[in-house]
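Worked problem 6 (solution included).
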Amino acid sequence: MSARDADAITSGTGGLQDVHEEAGLHSPGQRFWPERWWQLIDYRIGIIPVPIYVVLVGLVATLVYTGEVKSDGPTMIAVLALGGFTCAEIGKRIPILRNIGAAAIFATFIPSALVYYHLIPAKLESSIVEFTKATNFLYIFIATIIVGSIFGMDRDVLIRGFLKVFVPLSVGSVVAALVGTAVGTALGLGSYHTFFYVVVPIMAGGVGEGAIPLSIGYAALTGVAQGEVFAQVLPPVMLGSLTAILLSGALNFVGKKYPHLTGEGRLQPLKEGEVDIQAAADDGGHEEGGPEKSVGQVGVSTIAAAGLTAITLYLLGVICFHLFGLPAPVAMLFLAVLAKLTRAVSPKLQVGGLVVFDFVRTTMTYPLLFAIGVALTPWDKLIAAFHFANIITIVSTVMAIMATGFFVGRLMNMYPIETAIVNACHSGQGGTGDVAILTAANRMQLMPFAQIATRIGGAVTITAVLLILGYLK
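Solution. The predicted structure is:
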């Protein structure tokens, strides 16, 4: 393997580690075993060492051929890691697109297309769908990301951020509604259809908590069958989310060129005396393709305790949903904020939460997106939105909400790129869209604010629009 090949491989997802260089394994006259073997096993595709990757390909192919693919944990971990990191690696190799979130897009939409065109064996597809829905590990991911993000914020920054983020979000929603409706009307879609069936679905909060309740409300008010309405509102949700992913990836690229516009995941500048716990824990931070983090002096039991704390808060959120109807991720978010503000969690546990956050972000993101692509992303609904008037209207709507977030955030002394990305989540595909958008933007720390934009923003949008439609009827 040439030095150029080694450099190409080492730029992969999650960082392909040059441990062999640090260990001095390039010395002349080295033997294949074990020195050159060690070099080979330290090359990774995502988090998977290349020899292990080759073995996994053979094992999964054998299991598929023999019909022994099960939906159990060990098998699905291997399948999803293999599929997710492979798709992400392809995205990271494509010039230009790799700078605007191609890894997240490919990890989500390649498996969706493979399912639609029956290029994934039926048994493998059904096992992935069963595992994804039975384990509900999307919410495990969101829970750990939210808790780690909140635990890593300064208390005053947290308070100010949650209060301020509603301003660009609200203004952006109004501007996006006006711009999107005007563009769709100008392109011949009609103002009524554009507003209710294109613009509103984009900002409704995804599929489960957006398109479905919206279609139920529309059906009740218009007398049209709910399934027919759902088929109309789902394509804009899908294409709007894809647009938000692309634009957020582009903003990540802009942030590298103009660092004064971004806090690299921090919503607003720190004031004098405020402590950036996350930066302290990271000891210089971590970015895909860069050096691995050290967990410092945090013990394994502390890390485990932080993970269990995140799961506990999520389960409390589930109880809140059954008692009060508040979506579990939102309830969990508020509970995590309350725990942070009341100092109910120790500094050590907060750092443990950050370690869990980074572990989950590094190891689970692309496998999760792959599972979402197979189980929850209908390729045909995405393709259905691809005609000129729809595309221009959807892109204009998403650009309007993000641009408004950018400029309003800047006026409010918030980092404009981060504010725009949070606003983008209001036009995403619910929780799955949040994951893809923040992955493309490399700003998973914004998950708490993304959940506000998606869940609360979506609920407010649906409620307001159904009231308007009821008045018009």
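Discussion: The longest strand covers residues 44-45.
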